[in-house]
Amino acid sequence: MDAFVLFERGEIASRVVYDADRVETRRAEREREALAARYAAYAASTADPVTFEQYVEVMRGMRD
Amino acid sequence: MTDSLGRRLAATTDAEEWLAVEDEAGAGKRFAAVDGLLAAVTSAAFAGKPPVRVTAAGATRALTLRHVPASARAALKEGFDLATQQAAGAWWLPESAPIKPGTVNLPAYYAIEPRWAMNTAATDAVRVEFGGSPDALASWALLIPFANALYAPLILRGPDAGALEPAARDASWAAVDALYTALGLASENVRSTLTRMRPGNGWSQLPTAEQIATKVALLDALRQVVGRQTVRRWRAEVLRPLVRRYYAKANKDAPTARVVLTKALQPATAAYFGGNWLALLDYLGEAVAASEEITTALPEPRLYVQASAKVEQVAAEKNLPVAEVAKILASYLGTDEIRSPIQRRLDVLRRYWAAFDTVHARQASGTPAPPDLTPGRGFDIGKDVPFTRPDLERVLPPAVLADIEALWNGACVPRYPDRIVSALFPQAEMVAAFGPALTFWNNIALTCWFYCEGPYSRTDIDGAAEFYSRGVKALAAADTPVDPQLFADLRAAQQRLGPPQELWADRRVLEAGPGVSITMSMGGGVRRDGFEILRDIVTTHRRAWAVQNLETALNRAWEEPLRELARQVNLAVARRGKLPTLKQFATLGAPVANAWFGGDLAALYAAVGERAPVEQTRVQLMPYDRAAFCNQVFTDLGGRYVPNGRAVEDIEGNRLSWDLRRLAAEAPRFVQLEEALDRPPTPEEFGAARLTWPTTVPFNRYAAAVRQVRAGLDTVRQTATTTEQAASRVAGTEPTITSVGPPASASPPARMALLGRSWESTGQAAPARPAPEQRPTSAPPSTPATAAQPAPAPPGQPSTPPPAVSPDADTAAPERRSGVLGRLLGRRQASAPAAPGAGWYPDPHVPAQLRWWDGAAWTEHIHRP
């Protein structure tokens, strides 16, 4: 059987192919947006909120 | 400059020309394996060997390809593996589909038994999972499209021959002619046979035997001309639309896969390019689009469900106060406590199991029949009234019933995703959340009862293992197996049971004359002594099973569907490049949202780590006692209950009674739609046409009756007693919610306005809100409405918000929060008071009643518990 060309290594692959690391990065960005929306509620409810970065770290530390 | 191969192919007008261009470029070799597979399968079918086999595989059916040569088998395995194609970017492939592979077998079926060939092919219809089944994917992408085209005349003259309008029918026959010509199949024999089959040539006048002979003749004629070149031409025919669409979409920039690959073009892409867009571009000789994205993997789902267990650990790691971490978590969950919606429901399910176990363990001979503790989505039929409340209402602790009501009363209906409406049957939703274990252990207990106490049981003890085999398999598949010794112990125990005793119903003694009496009786089944023997066996096994498996069963019940939902979200992102719309998400997530989140999609989004695009509105109009509601609607419609048992006495009354009962049973759905629409549904929205409407009950009268009845009934069950709450807290399983509805006396519009206001979204990031089951309507003093209860403020100062909570206020209502949050947030409340959100709070003037705080000012709405 002739093998199909899957992905050319090099420029094209690095540009258009989204491997596990890249899709995880994107998912993490969406997760960060979700956290940002909730952070607004948290920050509005407390006089001395932690920073957003701390908030993200705390929440990610509590994932299943 | 030479055109690319793709452009030259797009310019061809027939298959021969396509193949010539392809051969000239040396580009056809890549398809040799797939062409070989299609040729081999077709050849097997013409040789009388059905290549597709559909078999039962557990609860589903499986598809396998047979008579495939080893070389083609290798191509099949490599080219049609779903995971491989997805790893090449083909996330657009369906993961399962209903398919009708029987057409692939048609020549063989006609060779074996021509009279029943079409019917046999029809029985091969099956829904297949493509994952792990290259045979199924190859059938969907390659074999079935070819067979449907090749054997189209047989299909057009098959069982559904009359289904097409004349114009569509003529177009279909014209398409047959065009395709046969393109594939080089229009031999003299084929053409003459087609002429006999074509409309207008007296086909319907032919005897059945002659029709069948003609079909067999067509297949024989096709067998003589179909060959390797046919499948190559077919490839050209199915790839031409794909190639032409590519160039139709190409302008200054190359088009992306998402733009080109319509649903109709996906099977050919999967069949001939392994779903690999870059392979297609390589074949065409075109460059990849600048904005192309080829996703080769999905991210792992990340869930926020059991975070409360990590609060202290994370606080230590991040060097933050525990209370602050708890507050962060509560804010993320969007509620006032750190237990996730799933954890709160798991707590109730554990309590339900304890009550369930107790009820079954205490059941004794001589007592009323045991209740069905797994109510379904429907009403039981009463003896004296049309609708009865579920059995469990009479045996379960009020606190458990109230918690079920509170946690499973909300529902998401995908058509109205911006609303949380009332579930039609909250207890059935709870049962569904629990999973198969509850049903199995409930039913086996009922079998033991009815086998001993009569009158009848659905199975005897000897047949129980077989009768319950499906449930046993489901539990084994979930890694929560039932010990098979259970059935062996029950069988052995039969020797210790008493002999069968005939039960008699309706026994009458008639004096026929002096010294002569006639006893008339009707058989009512049998009973036997010894129920407690069987009960104790089941109890022993049930408890052993629970020790070993209950937590696993409960965790699997939520984790599998939630992870699958998260995967579906990631899959949708890979397919479309963006999150599913709210409606799409609601469609995907409604079952898990209703089982574990009270229909709250925002909470579901949070659980899978995604941003909610909208805050749903909760409007609660539904009376909590659905059976009482329906009974009253039945009465208000003029119903006079005539059950089937009295039908012989009043046939017309029985018929009208059942028509009205059917209408009354739909009343909760009417109210659910009213909640979703903010107005009564129209007859079309309600689906009135599918119901029978007595002349005395037009739709308008029905709608008025339903609204009037529901306005007079409470929407929320009476709360558990203080004593019960205290007992539960001692046990560490305090009720999560004990809210009550708005005043029953409120007019419907007022009630709706009242309820709606408590939920209105600001469109901004949501402030901390009560959990959905805590949000609706009103809350009595025992309701954990928010962690920060506002202190009373004089009504004369409407612009002054309730002051932030004081330590005193915190300790004044300890039952209003979960034990964990109470512990974790106790000190925080004193040092970092939180602003109170909208909700019901003790009235500043009249502590015995509640007054609505809209988040900024006291309102005129009050509630007297």
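qc> The first helix of chain B runs from residue 5 to 10.
qc> done
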